[in-house]
Amino acid sequence: MLTDLQPHIDEAHNEMKLSIDFVKREFGNIRAGKANPQLLENIKVDYYGSLTPLNQVANISAPEPRLLVVQPWDKSMIQAIEKAILSSSLGLNPSNDGNLVRIPLPILSEERRQELVKVARDMAEKSRISVRNARRDANDAIKKQVKDDSLPEDSRFEAEEEVQKLTDQHIKKIDALLEEKEGEILSI
What we know:
Mean pLDDT: 86
Number of helices: 4
Strand order of the largest sheet: 3-4-6-5
């Protein structure tokens, strides 16, 4: 009878995987100690009238631990790229030499590191909440189907137990990702 309820379990699993993907993406946008091209991933540049992700109009690299270099494929885009980076909420000060945009990354103060850890914890908590919401939705759907289809209660308990195992696994993954990100932020 568990096979009748499997679609609900699978849907919960997919929702939980999306939460993990979300937290990984968001953690990638938090600047830790060293330069990471992923930091500029969400910046959009005005490319001939349309907002285009920076990585689609330029090559982004980190040749040094505290420096990002953006090399546009079209040299006329340098001003627009510099403007987009300046107007982002990252607090970076790019400079260009006509061919590339260099972005020096300042050393993070201890206070700023603690702020970033708080941001990471908030993101992880949002992700955990999303996982728990997926569990609740799956359990509600399972209860409804058991009632509507007159399935045995044992199958409901088995399915709910399976959903709880998935929830525990995904919460552990989020906690591990958070621990790794905190270590990355706090290390010098």
